[in-house]
């Protein structure tokens, strides 16, 4: 924002703001362009997301398992109520956990009306890269709560191994369909 706008916004005469800039005591970062215009680089005000507002994300891999979506929703709603969260959004999706193009999940990750994302198991959110999604949400001021964590690192390893096998089998099937047709 231009220095004149910044000064007006803060109720300071422009001349005073200009002097402060020249003296290096302006209480905000500012730069002067080659044209002489002074721009004040205000930090964006921190967005405070409601930490009691929760979004629920449920997923199954195949349409035949759609009934499990409702069971996941019910368990997560019970969990949210026990923790005192307000459920502001419920997202149900039928897609592979290996698929990184899930429109409903993409839309949910961009929403700004919740502070906590509830999932039943890590693999309901994603098979791989869970940590990256946690980082992304953390940068947005959100966090992920996994209701049923795997009991042991071995269980995580087995789940990852099974996911790789499924992925490989799916790729082979796709290749076979292309070659055989």
From TrEMBL:
Resolvase/invertase-type recombinase catalytic domain: from which residue to which, for each copy?
53-181
By its UniProt entry, which SMART domains does this protein fall under? Resolvase (SM00857)
One GO molecular function term of this record is: DNA binding
Q: Which branch of life, at top level?
A: Bacteria
Q: Which Gene3D superfamilies match?
A: Resolvase, N-terminal catalytic domain
In Swiss-Prot or TrEMBL terms, this protein is called IS607 family transposase
């Amino acid at each position: 924002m231009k220095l004149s706008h910044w000064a007006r916004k803060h109720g300071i005469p422009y001349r005073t703001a200009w002097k402060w800039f020249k003296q290096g005591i302006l209480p905000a970062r500012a730069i002067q362009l080659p044209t002489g215009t002074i721009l004040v680089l205000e930090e964006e005000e921190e967005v405070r997301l409601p930490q009691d507002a929760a979004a629920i994300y449920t997923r199954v891999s195949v349409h035949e398992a759609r009934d499990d979506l409702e069971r996941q929703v019910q368990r997560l709603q019970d969990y949210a109520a026990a923790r005192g969260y307000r459920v502001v959004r419920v997202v149900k999706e039928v897609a592979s956990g290996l698929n990184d193009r899930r429109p409903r999940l993409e839309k949910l990750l961009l929403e700004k009306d919740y502070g906590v994302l509830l999932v039943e198991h890590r693999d309901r959110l994603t098979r791989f890269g869970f940590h990256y999604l946690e980082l992304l949400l953390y940068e947005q001021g959100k966090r992920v709560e996994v209701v049923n964590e795997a009991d042991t690192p071995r269980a995580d390893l087995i789940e990852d191994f099974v996911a790789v096998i499924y992925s490989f089998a799916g790729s082979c099937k796709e290749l076979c369909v292309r070659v055989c047709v």
